[in-house]
Amino acid sequence: MPLEIPNTAREVENRSLTDVQRTLQGSNPQLKNSWLLALVSSNSNRNFDFYAQLLEAIKQNFPDTATGEFLERHAAIFGKQRLAATQATGNCVATGTASSIIPLATALTISGNTYTTTSSATITAQAISVLSIERSGQTATVTTVSDHNLANNVLVTMSGAGEAEYNVTDVAIIVTGLNTFEYQVVGSPATPATGTILASFDSASIPIQSDDFGSDQNIDVGAQLKLQSPLSGVDDTLLVDFGDVGGGTDQEIDESLRARMLDRIQSPVAHFNEADIIDQAKEVPGVTRVFVEGAGTDIGTVGVTSITRSGTIATVTLSGAQDLSTGQRVTITGANETEYNVTKVPILFQSSTVFHYTVLGGPATPATGTILSSVSIAAGTVRVYFMRDGDDDPIPSASEVQTVKDKIIEITPATTDVDADLEVLAPTPVETDYTFTALSPDTPTMRSSIIANLQQFYAENTVVSVGIDQDAYRSAIFNTVDTETGDIVQSFELSEPIGDIAIVSGQIGTLGTVVFP
To answer: What pairs with residue 307 in β-bridges?
Structure first.
């Protein structure tokens, strides 16, 4: 028998008035200001309150509608706890006089937030070997042999280049990677630079942690923190390094906890399978989507410059670098000599552009045709990408990637080489701008609704290594409903994007700028 729950207190009152009139004949319970009407009305309102509480109690009995404490109790049955707010962590760069010390628990501030160093550090004079310097215009891009642990605007001295223009003293740099940075040069020296080149600087890399919890504690690369109290020989400003200070999250909300619990119910986990890896990665606060690519997954295709054969060994030279290693599986297509065309065969690695594999028969050498090489993830290896869609920048930082890898390592089998067999990566964003040349109806609220719908589309429907179909993003626009007027999109035209959005291995589509006519 279905529950019959009234929609309003007035509905309960009307039923009660009818009952009173039928039972107490001759009375008039609907007479205004009568004690009988007051009694019926008050009892009806209280009864309706009980109905409302009953409805709420029914919701709390089911995992997909429970909230608050009741949701936590459902989740605990499946081993899920509400994720607590977390502190932001990362590294910053201190500069100053060599041998100056930054003690443990040194306080730093920025925008009213306070951070504390979690170890001591000493400013030292350092010199890192430079692998290369390449110039474009006045910008020189430096690649160091090892991670430089620098930040934007640190002063670096470059020496040893055969082209004098590259040799500069105390130039402010812009960090572009863990082992790359840029600086400005005068003139037009030959590129790449020659010589035995060194990058020298006086600095210390020091780990810090926010005193408070929450997403507002995260700070970007190059941000300037101030010493709360001066330190002898240490510059007052410390700079956030390339890894940024991240990982700070707010306490998990009901919607996120419910989603993780339902994922666990609907996708029971086994040991270190895809569901288990996703489930474990989402235990890190802020992680919203996880993409697992296992052994055999195609991760990239490049052209083949040549295939030559010596006996049963084919040697492949690629037109561009691929992520290769011995045992990696490769598919070769497009050779006119069909014996060279193979599917997911193991290779012997020589370099990022040369590898070998076994070929059957005696095909002519060299091979002819328009030949392609497709690489698959090697057996026993898994590659994991993830997103943090609730952050201002949904692409994870280096420190957030390491945190997720450390979490996944907790469930890896004892036989797994976590350095060789487990890769945890941030996807490479492919940002797409949307330029409307026509829109109907074209109102401010419709424009806002379209932007919100596209943001939701990119947060829920994009997948690492998978292209975005034209019909999918156009459908997201057509399905927009103006939140103010209730109008729907009647028609629109785009000058960009046009057609499907191409995404290659390791990339994910992200929303760029939306421009209206």
So the answer is: 316
| Distance from C-alpha of 441 to C-alpha of 183, rounded to nearest angstrom | 49
The rounded distance, in Å, linking the Cα atoms of 189 and 187 is 6
3-state SS, residue 430: strand
Question: What global pTM score does this model have?
Answer: 0.65
Phi then psi dihedrals of residue 371, to 5 deg: -105, 140
185-223 confidence digits (pLDDT tens): 999 999 999 999 999 999 999 999 999 999 999 998 889
Rounded average pLDDT per 10-residue block, the chain, 517 residues: 79 85 80 83 88 90 94 93 94 94 96 96 94 94 91 94 95 91 95 94 95 93 92 94 88 94 83 89 95 83 92 92 79 95 89 90 94 84 92 90 94 79 91 96 95 95 93 95 91 96 90 95
- Longest distance between any two alpha carbons in the chain, whole Å: 113
Give one DSSP letter per residue of 36-75, joined into a string.
Answer: HHHHHHHHHHHHHHHHHHHHHHHHHTSTTT--HHHHHHHH
* Neighbouring-strand partners of residue 129: 198
Q: Where are the domains of the chain?
A: 1-60, 89-240, 298-376, 428-515
CATH code for 89-240?
2.40.30.20
| Residue spans of alpha helices (H) in 253-359 | 254-266, 274-281
Tell me the C-alpha distance between 192 and 101, whole Å.
38
CB atoms within 10 A of CB 415: 7
Reply yes or no: is the peptide bond before residue 441 cis, omega within 30 of 0: yes
Residue 65 CB neighbours (<10 A): 14
Q: What is the SS3 assignment for 426? A: coil
Closest to 491 measured CA to CA, from 450, 456, 461, 448: 450
Token representation of residue 406: 């450390």
Is 39 in contact with 45 (CB distance < 8 Å)? no
H helix or E strand, kind and range, residue 318:
strand 313-318
Q: Which fold has domain 298-376?
A: Elongation Factor Tu (Ef-tu); domain 3 (2.40.30)
Q: How many angstroms separate the CA atoms of 222 and 241, rounded?
A: 6
The end-to-end CA distance of the chain, in Å, is 56
Instruction: Give the residue among 128, 138, 142 at the shortest CA–CA distance from 192.
Output: 142
SS3 181: strand
